[in-house]
Fold this protein.
Amino acid sequence: MSSTAWRLDPDRGFDPEPSRRTLARDLYATVRNLPLLCPHSHVPPALLADPEACLGDPASLFVIPDHYVTRMLFSQGVSLEDLGIPARDGTPVERDHRRIWQRFAEHFYLFRGTPTGLWLADELVNLFGVSERLDGASAQRIYDHLEAQLARPEFRPRALLARFNIALLCTTDSATDSLEHHRQIHAAGLARVRPTFRPDALLALDAPDWPAQIARLSERSGIDVVDYGGFIRALEERRVAFRAMGALATDHGVLSPTTARLSDGEAERIFVRALRGAADARDAARFTAHMLMEFARMSCEDGLVMQLHAGSLRNHHERLYARFGPDVGADIPVATEWTRNLRPLLNACGADPRFRLILFTLDESAYGRELAPLAGHYPAVLLGPPWWFFDSVNGMRRYFAEVIETAGVYNTAGFNDDTRAFASIPARHDLWRRVSCDWLAGLVTQGLLAADEAVDLAYELAYGLAWRAYCRGSATSGLPLFHVKPAAKDQPRREDEHSASSTT
Amino acid sequence: MSSTAWRLDPDRGFDPEPSRRTLARDLYATVRNLPLLCPHSHVPPALLADPEACLGDPASLFVIPDHYVTRMLFSQGVSLEDLGIPARDGTPVERDHRRIWQRFAEHFYLFRGTPTGLWLADELVNLFGVSERLDGASAQRIYDHLEAQLARPEFRPRALLARFNIALLCTTDSATDSLEHHRQIHAAGLARVRPTFRPDALLALDAPDWPAQIARLSERSGIDVVDYGGFIRALEERRVAFRAMGALATDHGVLSPTTARLSDGEAERIFVRALRGAADARDAARFTAHMLMEFARMSCEDGLVMQLHAGSLRNHHERLYARFGPDVGADIPVATEWTRNLRPLLNACGADPRFRLILFTLDESAYGRELAPLAGHYPAVLLGPPWWFFDSVNGMRRYFAEVIETAGVYNTAGFNDDTRAFASIPARHDLWRRVSCDWLAGLVTQGLLAADEAVDLAYELAYGLAWRAYCRGSATSGLPLFHVKPAAKDQPRREDEHSASSTT
Amino acid sequence: MSSTAWRLDPDRGFDPEPSRRTLARDLYATVRNLPLLCPHSHVPPALLADPEACLGDPASLFVIPDHYVTRMLFSQGVSLEDLGIPARDGTPVERDHRRIWQRFAEHFYLFRGTPTGLWLADELVNLFGVSERLDGASAQRIYDHLEAQLARPEFRPRALLARFNIALLCTTDSATDSLEHHRQIHAAGLARVRPTFRPDALLALDAPDWPAQIARLSERSGIDVVDYGGFIRALEERRVAFRAMGALATDHGVLSPTTARLSDGEAERIFVRALRGAADARDAARFTAHMLMEFARMSCEDGLVMQLHAGSLRNHHERLYARFGPDVGADIPVATEWTRNLRPLLNACGADPRFRLILFTLDESAYGRELAPLAGHYPAVLLGPPWWFFDSVNGMRRYFAEVIETAGVYNTAGFNDDTRAFASIPARHDLWRRVSCDWLAGLVTQGLLAADEAVDLAYELAYGLAWRAYCRGSATSGLPLFHVKPAAKDQPRREDEHSASSTT
């Protein structure tokens, strides 16, 4: 069976015009080996809590949990059952992981021109040493190869954490999480792994499992949540616990970034209605808008950076949700209004020097119209990197083209990979570093930026901005984080392996 | 009188960077002569029904019926009366076609930088052999030349159908059309010409001519439409008739793609109200939303591909509409919501393997935000090519840049020309083929796609995607369609003139 | 103290691909020295009324009044107090202009990649002869240099008006302005400086200072405004006065471009309610929508070009507004609907040959969807250049890419600088000329435009379009304006210093 050699272009992501390409290469060389800051991810902390944890077999690593992959196959007629996605309604699903892998390999051509295709190619070739192109013919040979690699100790998550040169890895954790995994991780000396406080489930007043969430909050916080005041105190208590484990930030996922303060009386009435099981969708929406104001207030007080991800209509496909639950690739964005919606929150806290708010959108039309002007005015606001569907070559290019002229580089938050696929982290950062260096090279070759400024900005985009957005000045526990400063002018950039600074 | 030679750049549409241009040329060479699939057009079937039909004189071919042309002249102060657009209110209009042509020629510079300008140049130079640039000075000489060409038998529509290498041409036909023209066309052995079922006029419950439309529906279907049930049966009967004439698809033009199923009782009440002449705009909108659900159901059952064109506010200029009727270049797009609007329909049918829904937008901000994620999830959804104003070099480039990274190439429907200007068909397809090859060349030269993958995708974009979207698996009458398969790997691409396959 | 030499790339704004760059340079050479038409600006006429007026010191010229500059520093934690912005609530602010300049210089790196950075560099280097890069170390040396330059007679505003080769400079003036400055300017023979009629403050029925505005209108017009009829007559009287001073246009800034004619009775009732101090925000919005219709009617009658700037939510940051008032960089755009909103106005006047309406948007998603189709249909509509945040390299590129294919070049209004920073005028026009020539060079090198057409269009974009939009055919006082016609074909372009034509 013939096979096609798989080799990645060392200049991928760079414009072919020679003067620009040469400069992009030079800039990229200054940042490609900088440590990775991953201030927002969905990596399961369990992977790093257990020193013996493995990444699993090829199907359970690359296919089953990755909704970027499964939605594309689903869109072309492959059922989620055939991809082995666990069904919560008891429907039997494929259990043979080699057959799942085979189906994936036969459809791998669907990812041509997509970031998922680029990430997977980078992982398979550069991380796992695959040498022939993935398709139906090569599928089983490559499965064998990957299985052998994954069995080796250097592919254990903790080994990869070091090999990937990850200087910070923030997970995303329910506000009611025990943080037990993080305790184990820190006990192993991996202070660079941090939890992030995500209280979304506690705001879904009309969800069936909300009472259970409140019960868990009471249990974890030691505060019996029987009224609105207790709810606020319990949240504050949990934030203390997260900060003690080194948390740098909170994260909030909302359909709309509406913010509006309720009177205490009104908040109390809605909360009590919810405790009686009588809250409806409108109550939940108003309460969420109010709680965003409260979370901003808490961030002013405790220094946790506030991240806001808005605009995803979750679980659009109802039958799929009933069978497989959330996060199977059926979340579809909607148009999102920021200017009016954030006005109450920003008028309350947007100029508070203790506050930092990082915004993430799935509506690119808001980049230049609303988000860049907001970030270019309010001291607290930074604009997060292109998110989800837009974490892509063109997504990044549009982001640079539409955001920077108004917001400037320094009102952005650098990159984060936002991934649950641990092994894809280097590929994602690498693509960002390539595309950002190519963008800077474009500015220089068009006479719009000086060459030395481009070197500074390449460092900022790869490392400095994310460091300042999340790590500098945060009121955390003082757990040390490794930090790389920019090279002094007139000297080649050099990583100083011995410099380490605390985050406080 | 001096004249300027008119010569088109053989590399038009290609980036000037040499490595990219070379590759774009090579890719284009593999697809430029592939047969044309035209699965959505507005070509009048009368043109092909009569073997002696002619395209008319230069003004009636290039100016009077083309709202792309007339709107631009109107925007610069030329009246529609002076362009000879027939007035339905009896206003006298210009009847001297040489004077109309002269006005057009004097304003031809207005089309610089527009797709209409590119198409017209391609038609005039490459199809009609015009050799000097069109302006006021050359107008009458070129009129003479065109008149002579148009009188020749090789410029009759049927001759051009063969010369253009059109393998499929779908017209757009009222649901109440007699299909008599198509019968004549098929009798002449031109099975590649197909009708498309367009029932829009039957949903405009509040329009003055709706009763007449219903009367015609009753007559054509043989079912006396006196209630909602009869209406549905009559529509189903008409779909049977369209399929018997080889129809592959339906087409639906709506202001908003709202979908929502009414109860049978409610549908009946609205329909009866309309029969009494008492339906209002809200009734019409709710009924339309309901009928989209019904048409999706019918498509699941009979296999007709469902096309949905949304977002054009028709007849914005009321005085012009009163005098000249629709389609004079005064339709203006509006922002269009897809995620919430299509949810009911997609939850009902979006994963039905018998169903295919092709979406067309005039709101490009929805490409990456809503349409690509929907196409990248629901098996039934494909995204149609850039439509109307966006059938242009930059429109295509934005489409590729904003859609493909999320939806992938294979969830798109290839190209269609959507034209009523029969003679412009090759020019439009040629521009798409050029721009798509240039886009692929850009990916390859940036290291984001392998060269052999680009060859495959060039074929897909020029031919394969449209074939699969409309022809493969459609439950039609078995009328044979000519089909060109992609070249086998390791072999130069070659058209097999002898291979013909049915569509079933 | 080491310093970095500051030298601007002579090819800035041009694509690096050699064939395109060469052509861009050639095109730019044909337009770079054309006179500047500035038909929309916020330059204070006082600067030109007094022959001895100065531009001030470096801080009061470059920092304090420029909200593009101050918002960026504010976004990074510099207070407006520390930048010397005058506070209307009596808060003390920095009065040491050298310290303000120092703060600005230390933060100048924030403007990397922004149009403000490009304009400032051009001004400092090319206009003021600064030779080292601006940063904290060079700040005071550069202050000294600028101070010395600004003291020289050739840096007085009237001297710069000539040196900048400004052929038309329209200011923006309250409808109740005395026009005394303009009288002085014209008395000095500077007929190229013109007022623009801006009545916004008279439409804010619910604003605290509206009664004062009405009182001033009564005083200026000599008509006692005690009812709606008097209000209309007084506005018409003021337009006569503006036209007598050479006004070419009106300007209207609105949150939403809603247009809707009220009945006379309704207009009267709302107006009387406002005179009683009882109008609310809804009244103000409805009255504004009505008055836009009225202003369009007046423009049909008196020939003043109507400019409409929509979509800025002013004074988003309430605390800052309370302290510092408007125009401090806290205006944030919102999504803007044009198709439905302008329909009443365009149906009334959109095809009136006496009327011209120029539209400006902060919502780029409307460019291709709504604005280009409107401009490409209605004879009265032209699309203004990229506005405010989008007056930038990428903003212009998106404008060309999204507008021209539908609207054509000739339905656009050329460039205007919209600046209150008099010294930045040449830098802004120069950037537009560079980017437009580069865009045209791109079209030519891609075979989409002939080289001679590009020469014509370069002239149009730099000069001709703005001339025709504002100056040709306007029913003004006949004050002469200097005009440069395009070079005849086959001849090198040449400015005819002796040709001067009136605007009528």
